[in-house]
Design brief:
Length: 139
Amino acid sequence: MLSYPITLTPDSNGTFLVGFPDFPEANSVGDDEQEALINAVDALETALEIYFDERRPIPAPSKPMPGQHVVSLPALETAKVLLWNEMSARQVRKADLARMLNVHMPQIDRLFDLKHSSKIEFVEQAAKALGKSLVVSLV
């Protein structure tokens, strides 16, 4: 899983401000620490969608400092981000991937929609088309 460190800063109103060192454009707030952590997930997903829309590679998580909170992406979203970064590194466009998989573009668009519950088999198939394999483990 990809786990991104966050900053939690209490403000003068008693709320907590959330920031991401790896995503300056991702910010959130919560009435308390617990709500701020929940809202941080939405902020991260929104930032990732911006990167997808702008066709930019997703930054790898920086190493958190001891005791620093992190926000972890679910397994499917992690796989989508890793697949996206592999495509970016190889300069493979979504249209290229669609041709490689012999599917229509809407299927590829849904593949990189974090709110869409893609089948993990399709992510695995896309990785294979790029010469990679998807590895899942329990830790």
